[in-house]
Amino acid sequence: MKKNIIITAGPTNERLDAVMKITNMSTGALGAIIADEFLSDKNSEIDTLYYISPKLARKPQVESNKLELITIESAEDLLKVLKQILLEKKIDTVIHSSAVGDYVGEYAITAKMLANEITQKTYGSKLNKEELEEFILGIIRSPEQIVSDEHKISSYERDLMFKLSLTPKVIGEIKKTSPDTKLIGFKLLDGVSYEELIEVATRLREKNKADYIIANDLSKIGNGNHNAYFVGNNGVEYKCENKKEIAKTLKKIIFK
């Protein structure tokens, strides 16, 4: 039976104003290599491969009528598109390699504006220490005056600060939306022990009901190397040393 596959790749870009965004160093290269590995096999059982990534991320190089490119920007965009496809199509596997940003800009404010509001609302207050702390936290979370972010924020704002809030945890919504879809996620840590890397990946797999979490250590990525461990129900089931091996292992798992 032909399979519908989703690959997410590249960073998410979270808006701060009309020009500035929070992003990360992901290029989408691994997702593109995986897609090319799948599409280059003329005998593969793919019906449609949905490739979801931001505009500037790497794209698959293999031309195929089985490939559908979908452009997103933010984590919210990614989650919306994923849910829509999962609800409308029968998806066999999601390979979630996107480097989803952890934070999105909530508002911008200057230090002077914030200090002024805190001073005005707390000066002469009879609150005790705990009450005062909670009151100030309330102001910081939702000040009355902020810098407008509808357009580009002025380059001359002094002591500009941004309040950040958490983005949605995209991986946690995939099995909730489509319980029968195979889920393969990724976990990237930096400079940790092998034991810690596998332990964190195992917890992530169990929490999100993933079939595999591919664990990577940033300190061991570069110069053509990309050490990766496929953490499944039986612990580490496959080990790869570069992106091409990761792609080939995924093809073996999905199409076996």
SSE blueprint and pairings:
Elements: E1 3-8, E2 14-15, E3 21-22, H1 29-39, E4 46-53, E5 67-71, H2 75-88, E6 93-96, E7 103-110, H3 111-122, H4 129-141, E8 160-166, H5 171-177, E9 182-189, H6 194-208, E10 212-222, E11 225-232, E12 235-240, H7 243-255
CATH architecture of the largest domain: 3-Layer(aba) Sandwich
Global geometry: elongated
The major beta sheet can be summarized as: 8 strands, mixed
The CATH class of the largest domain: Alpha Beta
**Terminal-residue CA separation:** 12 Å
Distinct helical segment count: 7
Would you tell me the overall average pLDDT? 95
Descriptive overview:
It contains seven helices and twelve strands. The protein is an alpha/beta fold. It has two domains: 3-102 and 168-255, Rossmann fold (3-Layer(aba) Sandwich), CATH 3.40.50.10300; 105-165, no CATH class. The strands form three sheets. It has an eight-stranded mixed sheet with strand order 5-4-1-6-9-10-11-12, sandwiched between helices. The protein has a two-stranded antiparallel sheet with strand order 2-3. Strand 10 and strand 11 (225-232) form a beta hairpin. The longest helix is centred in the last third of the chain and has 15 residues, at 194-208. The mean pLDDT is 95.
Short synopsis of the structure:
With 256 residues, this protein is of the alpha/beta class. The chain is 33% helix and 29% strand. The radius of gyration is 22 Å and the shape is elongated.
Can you give keywords for this protein?
256 residues; alpha/beta; Rossmann fold; 8-stranded mixed sheet; two-stranded antiparallel sheet; 7 helices; 33% helix; elongated
